[in-house]
């Protein structure tokens, strides 16, 4: 029975391949799942340990101006000058309102109980009893109520530690400095009177600590403002929804109730102050108008006595009534103008509208004056005096009425703000929103994991198909699959100056698992190599690569073993005198190898070692020399290779990576055939191309390439890869 295993391939590697990206995600599914699960667990821990935040809310309404008629209010209404919702919102957020709330609730005094790190608040919320090692922590049912705290300016914002001692007493520290001791319920002075503290209540075990800070008033206002929000419900509804966030639901409810009450009070006071200002102005005008009225009446009586009770005819009486009416209206406008001039300049729309109305009345009065000039002189004189009396009398009565109106308005001012819903704290916390937070952080973890995998795949995209190497102009002689059996032969060798050891081969795969798919691929390479070396001028094969850890030594050792198993005499020379580890595959030592013979410290026959595989010999790297490149450039190395070529059918030279050092370029001049190894998923095409150019610049022609350690991945299955078959015979 025959069993067949196949991996597929597909071109198009120069473009963004969605199928390949999907495959990359499948290849890294465990990493993505691990990162996502880590974020999910972290999210669950976070929402459990996070301090819950509660919300209190209240509802207020701002109505239109109410109360008795007011000329100013009427003009404002006509011109659309009523206060807008935005102005009321800003008043609610102002330091005037929030500052009074800070003062009333003493929010500038901050008391922070000491807790166990990270989990202290959570354990307290669970109601767990105080453990023995947490003597300094404040636990369930323990609290500190500071009645009063006054400090000098230099102590504002300075943290002080209050430590409970014997019942009813405490000690106050600044850092580790003891400021003094005090009693509960008593105002105590510390630091020569610069600190005055009265602790109203202290319920805590001995040694429990609290941090006490007197913040600046501005800092407390800013902190309150950051937790306070207000917005209008609907458009132009005048209904404002106020909310306040706090760790303590009762404190949030109290503070928001105080804010609403302060806003209501200042609204009433503001309207009452407006009525009071108008009343003061009117009361100032009464004495002057009363004197003017008395003078006008005296003058009229004197004129009538002089002319023996002269009366007005019907026509003159109608003109007089019209003149009195106009003068009365002008008098009212003059009072309004005087009041407006105290608040607005002449360019304000209210002031301009008033002046336009006054100009119209004055024009009407001018026309009446022209009619008056046509009357007899005596009639004109008595008309003017009667007009002065009646106009002044009308103004005087108007002033008295306005004073009465303003007095009633001031006494009955209720404001145009009312509280619809009193402040109340919602029963459950609003933060953290546990389900939403867990889901969001889990999605963030999944997104970051996917992004990391995709970005890493794009930025560190190694060769994944033979076509990628062939597009560089280099024929691929073999594609060698990654061998699971070979991974079992790898061990790590630790060095004294590195925390992590270097992976080396401890065995020959061709000997331990001759039917492995990787060995089958090397047998195919053996056939291709036979024809490739027919044109070479010697029997030497150099195997190199762009970078370390790509499997050059694995290819050299197992290719040599496969060729030796076919009956040829093969020698492997470890020319990487810095980090070569061919000797580890045969469980031998590196000393007594290439570096010794090139340094004339050993003979050729002494360094050639026979491997357990018949026909396969090897030369270890020897002791690491200080000048490996100079040794390889010496005449001694040339004579060594010539002597080895005469003794063996094939000499395989394993070299250091060409992009790391120049050793491969030197060795390549002495070898008729050169193969370049690239590792699947590790060496990008650009790096392979640079390695080829580096060798060609040195005069070394690369015959072909080997793609090593091919893995069956979803990225290559969905994207592109290459075909490889494993053909094994099984028992029926």
Textual characterization of the structure:
The chain has 732 residues and is an alpha/beta fold. Helix content is 47%, strand content 20%. The chain has 24 helices and 24 strands. The strands form 6 sheets. An 8-stranded mixed beta sheet has the order 14-23-22-17-21-18-20-19, with helices on both faces. A 5-stranded antiparallel beta sheet has the order 3-10-5-6-7, with no helix packed on it. Strand 19 (609-610) and strand 20 form a beta hairpin. Helix 5 packs across helix 8, helix 8 runs antiparallel to helix 11 and helix 9 runs antiparallel to helix 10. The chain is elongated and about 160 Å long. It starts with a strand and ends with a strand. Mean pLDDT is 83; it is low at 1-14, 66-82, 496-500 and 720-732.
Poorly predicted runs are 1-14, 66-82, 496-500, 720-732
**Radius of gyration of CA atoms, rounded to a whole number:** 50 Å
Strand order across the biggest sheet? 14-23-22-17-21-18-20-19
- Overall mean pLDDT stands at 83
Structural class: alpha/beta
Distance between the termini: 6 Å
The gross shape turns out to be elongated
Strand residues, percent: 15-25%
Number of extended strands:
24
Helix content: 40-55%
Biggest beta sheet summary: 8 strands, mixed
Output the number of helix runs. Answer: 24
């Amino acid at each position: 029975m025959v069993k067949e295993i196949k991996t597929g391939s597909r071109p198009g590697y120069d473009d963004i391949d969605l199928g390949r990206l999907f495959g990359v995600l499948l290849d890294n599914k465990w990493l993505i799942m691990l990162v996502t699960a880590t974020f999910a667990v972290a999210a669950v821990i976070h929402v459990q340990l996070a301090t819950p935040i509660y919300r209190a809310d209240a509802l207020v309404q701002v109505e239109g101006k109410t109360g008795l008629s007011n000329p100013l209010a009427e003009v404002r209404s006509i011109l659309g000058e009523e206060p807008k919702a935005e102005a009321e919102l800003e008043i609610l957020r102002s330091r005037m309102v929030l500052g009074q709330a800070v003062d009333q609730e003493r929010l500038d005094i901050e008391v922070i109980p000491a807790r166990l790190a990270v989990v202290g608040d959570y354990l307290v919320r669970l109601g767990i009893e105080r453990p023995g090692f947490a003597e300094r922590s404040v636990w369930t049912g323990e609290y500190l109520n500071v009645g009063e705290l006054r400090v000098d300016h230099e102590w504002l914002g300075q943290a002080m530690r209050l430590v409970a001692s014997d019942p009813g007493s405490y000690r106050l520290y600044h850092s580790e400095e003891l400021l003094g001791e005090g009693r509960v319920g008593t105002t105590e002075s510390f630091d020569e009177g610069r600190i005055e503290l009265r602790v109203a209540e202290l319920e805590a075990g001995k040694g429990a600590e609290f941090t006490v800070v007197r913040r600046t008033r501005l800092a407390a206002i800013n902190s309150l403002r950051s937790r306070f929000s207000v917005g209008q419900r609907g458009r132009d509804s005048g209904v404002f929804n106020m909310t306040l966030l706090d760790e303590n639901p009762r404190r949030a409810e109290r503070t928001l109730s105080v804010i609403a009450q302060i806003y209501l009070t200042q609204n009433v006071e503001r309207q009452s102050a407006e009525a009071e200002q108008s009343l003061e102005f009117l009361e100032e005008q009464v004495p002057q108008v009363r004197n003017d009225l008395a003078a006008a009446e005296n003058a009229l009586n004197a004129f009538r006595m002089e002319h023996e009770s002269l009366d007005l005819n019907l026509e003159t009486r109608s003109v007089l009534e019209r003149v009195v009416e106009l003068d009365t209206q002008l008098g009212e406008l003059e009072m309004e103008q005087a009041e407006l001039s105290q608040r607005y300049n002449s360019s304000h729309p209210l002031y301009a509208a008033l002046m336009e109305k006054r100009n119209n009345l004055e024009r009407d009065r001018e026309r009446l004056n022209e009619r008056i000039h046509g009357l007899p002189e005596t009639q004109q004189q008595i008309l003017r005096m009667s007009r002065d009396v009646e106009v002044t009398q009308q103004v005087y009565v108007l002033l008295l009425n306005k004073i009465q109106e303003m007095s009633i308005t001031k006494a009955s001012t209720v404001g145009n703000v009312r509280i619809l819903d009193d402040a109340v704290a919602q029963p459950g916390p609003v933060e953290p929103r546990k389900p939403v937070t867990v889901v969001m952080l889990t999605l963030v973890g999944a997104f970051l994991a996917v992004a990391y995998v995709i970005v890493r795949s794009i930025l560190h995209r190694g060769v994944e198909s033979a076509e990628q190497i062939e597009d560089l102009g280099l024929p691929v002689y073999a594609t060698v699959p990654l061998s699971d059996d070979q991974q079992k032969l790898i061990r790590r060798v630790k060095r004294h100056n590195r925390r992590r050891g270097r992976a080396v081969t401890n065995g020959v795969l061709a000997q331990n698992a001759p039917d492995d798919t990787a060995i089958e691929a090397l047998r195919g390479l053996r056939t291709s190599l036979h024809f490739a070396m027919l044109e070479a001028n010697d029997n030497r094969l150099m195997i190199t690569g762009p970078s370390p850890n790509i499997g050059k030594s694995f290819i050299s050792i197992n290719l040599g073993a496969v060729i030796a198993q076919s009956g040829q005499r093969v020698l492997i020379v470890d020319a990487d005198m810095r980090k070569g580890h061919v000797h580890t595959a045969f469980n031998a030592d590196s000393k007594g190898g290439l570096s010794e013979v090139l340094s004339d410290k050993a003979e050729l026959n002494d360094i050639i070692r026979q491997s357990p595989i018949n026909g396969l010999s090897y030369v270890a790297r020897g002791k690491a020399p200080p000048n490996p490149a100079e040794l390889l450039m010496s005449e001694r190395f040339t004579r060594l290779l010539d002597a080895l070529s005469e003794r063996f059918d094939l000499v395989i030279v394993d070299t250091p990576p060409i992009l790391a050092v120049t050793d491969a370029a030197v060795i390549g001049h002495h070898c008729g055939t050169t193969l370049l190894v690239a590792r699947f998923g590790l060496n990008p095409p650009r790096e392979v191309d640079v390695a080829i150019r580096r060798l060609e610049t040195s005069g070394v022609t690369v015959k072909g390439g080997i793609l090593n350690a091919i893995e069956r991945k979803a990225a290559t299955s969905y994207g592109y890869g290459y075909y490889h078959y494993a053909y094994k015979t099984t028992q029926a």
